[in-house]
Write a structure and sequence with these properties.
194 residues, mainly alpha, 4 domains, 10 helices
Length: 194
């Protein structure tokens, strides 16, 4: 019968086994500990093994700042942007693209168009998508206002004074009479009457 273990005893036993047998599989650990009278689940073995690897990397590895600096240097060399990379690694240039979009849009004359913001940021060396700029501008309340033709608003009026409703009715009339020529003749006769 397996002995009952107190809280943490299974994890301690797993760590001890891994320290003696670092290349052991999870199933080997479960079987070996079971032979010693300690029952552990295989999931616990995987968890302890994963945590052990993270701790080793943290101890043997570099600080987060050093890792960021290395990544920044690799990026800078490949893109030719060393100053930006160093600023990013030091945390000075922590602005997100959305922050840059907001900052640029606030400095532009109204109405602000997404393509103008994209062009302005491209000049500064920042690539952004048109859709991203549109979303940020909309969240800032700079969304393009659309004219509503339905629901009480005045319909759009053409330069000759006709609106959409007039054109729809004219199209129906043409369909009823048969052709535009017949409609013109009927209108001419109507004008002579009066």
């Amino acid at each position: 019968m397996a002995k009952t273990k107190t809280r943490g005893e299974g994890s301690t036993a797993i760590r001890a086994y891994f320290s003696k047998n670092p290349k052991a599989t999870a199933q080997e650990v479960v079987d070996a500990l079971k032979a010693e009278g300690v029952t552990v689940k295989i999931g616990l073995v995987y968890s302890v093994k994963a945590l052990g690897k993270k701790k080793k990397k943290k101890k043997a590895g570099k600080s987060n700042a050093a890792v960021r600096m290395e990544k920044a240097e690799v990026w800078a060399k490949s893109a030719g942007r060393m100053e930006k990379a160093v600023a990013w690694a030091n945390g000075a240039a922590s602005s997100t693209k959305a922050d840059l979009i907001r900052e640029t849009a606030k400095g532009m004359a109204k109405p602000v168009r997404p393509k103008d913001v994209v062009a302005a940021l491209k000049e500064r060396g920042v690539e952004v998508l048109h859709t991203h700029v549109s979303q940020v501008l909309a969240s800032m309340g700079m969304k393009k206002k659309r004219k509503a033709a339905v629901g009480g608003a005045a319909p759009a009026v053409a330069s000759n004074g006709l609106n959409i409703n007039d054109l729809v009715m004219a199209k129906k009339l043409v369909g009823q009479v048969g052709s535009i020529e017949k409609v013109r003749e009927a209108l001419a006769a109507l004008a002579r009457l009066g």
